[in-house]
Amino acid sequence: MADIPTSLSWTRAAPEGAEGPGPWIEVAFGSEGFVYLRETGAPENVITTTLKKWEAFVLGVRAGEFDHFAELDGQGPITP
User: Fold this and answer.
1) pTM score, whole prediction
2) Model pLDDT for residues 37-55, shown as the tens digit of each residue
């Protein structure tokens, strides 16, 4: 496994106005086309992927490909 750079600038993906420790997902973009993901509750566990794969994932999220994972108590997808 590659070493995680210590100089990463993490961005928290939390709803606007959210308070408290989360847990939230944080993302950082490193050099050489790598993207790093972690959860605030376990920041020592970092997932590394490529920028190309990250961009494909973001396109899928925007297209609604993962909405079925966001169902809450059988009430249908969560909407902003």
Assistant:
1) 0.76
2) 999 989 999 999 999 999 9
**Between the CA of residue 13 and those of 16, 17, 28, 32, 67, what are the distances in Å?**
9, 11, 11, 23, 17
The one-letter amino acid at 77: P
| DSSP structure string for the chain | -PPPPTT---EEE--TT--SS---EEEEE-GGGEEEEEETTEEEEEEEEEHHHHHHHHHHHHTTTTGGGGB-TTS-B---
* 3 to 8, 28, 41, 47: CA distances (angstroms): 12, 14, 20, 11
Name 34's bridge partners. Answer: 50
